Amino acid sequence: MNKASEMxxxxxxxxxxxxxxxxxxxxxxxxxxxxDESLLIxxxxxxxxxxxxxxxxxxRGKPRAKIEVDLRNxxxxxxxxxxxxxxxxxxxxxxxxxxxxxxxxFTGDYLVRQPIxxxxxxxxxxxxMQDVIEDxxxxxxxxLSCKLEVKNVSDYYCILVIPDIFQRVQxxxxxxxxxxxxxxxxxxxxxESVLSSFGANLxxxxxxxxxxxxxxxxxVDDGVILPGTYVRKNFGSKxxxxxxMRQVTKRNACDQAVQLQSNNYGDLLQMEKLKxxxxxxxxxxxxxxxxxxxxxxxxxxxxxxxxxHNDGLYISANTLFESEPFNxxxxxxxxxxxxxxxxxxxxxxxxEDNFEELSGGIQLCWYWGSKEKEQQYFIEGNQMxxxxxxxxxxxxxxxxxxxxxxxxxxxxxxxxILFTGGGAHLIDLVDEVEALLIEKFQVMELNEIERVEVxxxxxxxxxxxxxxxxATVLPKTESVSELWITGSRxxxxxxxxxxxxxxMINQFDGDVQQLEKKLxxxxxxxxxxxRSCEYGLKHLxxxxxxxx
Length: 548
Ligand SMILES: Nc1ncnc2c1ncn2[C@@H]1O[C@H](COP(=O)(O)OP(=O)(O)OP(=O)(O)O)[C@@H](O)[C@H]1O
Prior knowledge:
By secondary structure, this protein is α+β, with helices and mostly antiparallel strands. The protein has a domain at 35-50 and 67-73 and 238-318. 39% of the residues lie in helices and 15% in strands. It contains 22 helices and 19 strands. Strands 9, 10, 11, 12, 17 and 18 form a 6-stranded mixed sheet that branches. A 3-stranded antiparallel sheet has the order 3-1-4. 37% of the residues are buried. The protein binds adenosine-5'-triphosphate (ATP). Residues 119, 211-214, 236-238, 272, 275-276, 421-423, 425-426, 464 line the site of adenosine-5'-triphosphate. One of its GO terms (cellular component) is Ino80 complex. One of its GO terms (biological process) is double-strand break repair.
């Protein structure tokens, strides 16, 4: 989040910690040994392709150069970072540390809740809609007070960026929280992929968003998502971190005393930083003597350790194209996902989702509704649309573009593949995708596609900020005053219809009794008239430019 006038957004994780007794803390780690076999197969494939070579003998035993990865996070854990106090009801809670945000979450015995997972509310038996909204309210308030230093929320309008696939009831609750609880002056909503196309200023493009926990692909034409082009996976950059963690452990690339754990947020965060610094798709021999300095927390003490440069750094990155390791991890909980605290997360079916429209007629409940149906869907081989089954990235992009009937548009889309989301920053990704897609389109006999171009940084905007930049463009458009759904319209606090009232007053000829009668009749009529289109959800539906 940030003010639309700022150049860059302020990002913080959607996590909130509550002080609890230590035994209440839930932690269960994912068994990463299940991916060993598929990683070995992947390694063999990369060796066969000559993308991976054995380490030259001359390099072994050479003094290693030290590379610091990121120390700031761990300093944050230990509370050395200065934190601003919000001037609001959260202040007390934050002062006595009964509620904590960002890195503070990992400094004590906190129950960590993640209100949004894979783009949906993270609903479980013990975590209902109200809890999620309450946590999102606190997180937003924290952001507004401590990150943006907004004093008077009622002076501001809010632009809410929502995922392309959403559950209507969840979005309704979010809008209501933003208007009613936080007190914003008004709101406007738009879809992430469409906003990315605005941010990149591309009229027709295939938007490939590689986020933390989801990959989302759609083709956008003039602000509209083309039906049937939608591919969405509940996998993301975080899964590369998990694979990397296993590789580092398996290869004994780090200090044996440090047992990295998938349910330890600090450890995962260090893998994330290591990935951002050192993961890439093709092997680089000049990095062989690098030693990465990382830090972990053990018994509330900071511990320094080193990870040697190793082939796992290439293999993990390649899992985006050889997805078996991701699926092996997910097979452990085929129908349920666990977040890093080990909490069960089950995808909820909502009759109000918009998936059917986007997928060209396939209902989300078809495979999210029940285990049997998902299993059936899985067996029947229609894996492209199964969100819990990962498919190589190039296959998904090619599938999305191939759904478009018009060859001319298909061609334009292949020339404008827009990579967004933090995962798109992975080194060598663009070259790899371009090369694979050219081959793929040939195999699919889409002969009109002669050129593939992947776009990442556009006018200095990095992929991770593309949708946000698109959102900041909205208030600058000419029709801005028409866009907003004001607080009073959402809440139904309608003004009486002015014209009629004004006419009545203008026609006043001194007869007070007559005017009084007219006013009473007007008030009665106004009350009886159906004005439901002018407020609440119906009003919102008229304002938003996408399928609700
Ligand atoms: N330079 C980089 N190289 C590789 N990965 C990166 C880089 N920078 C950021 N990332 C990864 O991008 C991810 C965050 O991306 P982003 O902010 O788009 O996710 P998000 O929008 O929060 O996720 P989601 O779409 O699942 O809601 C993190 O996993 C991070 O490690």
